[in-house]
Amino acid sequence: MCSNSATETPTDMSGIGKSRAAIDRDLKAIIADVLGLDTDQVAEFTPDTGLFGHLPELDSMAVAGLLTEMEDRLDIVIEDDDVDGEMLEAYGGLLAFAEAKIIEG
Predict the structure, then answer these.
(1) SS3 10
(2) Spatial contact of 58 and 35, defined as CB atoms under 8 Å apart
(3) CA dihedral of 26, 45, 37, 25, whole degrees rounded to 10
């Protein structure tokens, strides 16, 4: 009998360990949890969705909480030198940053 590959968990062959979709899902969950936003609202985020300066919930104190939660839940280390305004400007920048940190290991 053949295995039904459609029901098996897809594996990421790039060695990242997480697919882009999984990172996107996890990051959106982190944002919703840390900022207290509705999950439906966050699910609609696109790469161009503005973050810092666009979401009143994302102030400087919330940024610290967001980065700490990203470290914990994505199993990454974020150094002070890694953080800049560009990565927090829009959702796509934060997603790309998270992906890069996961690849970096």
Answers:
(1) coil
(2) yes
(3) -10
The whole-model pTM stands at 0.82
Q: Cα dihedral angle (70, 47, 104, 15), rounded to 10 degrees?
A: 110
User: 6-11 long-range CB contacts below 8 Å, 24 or more apart?
Assistant: none
Instruction: Encode pLDDT of 66-78 as tens digits.
Output: 999 999 999 999 9
| The predicted structure's pLDDT at residue 11 | 41
The domain 18-104 is classified under which CATH number: 1.10.1200.10, 3.40.50.2000, 3.40.50.170, 3.90.180.10?
1.10.1200.10
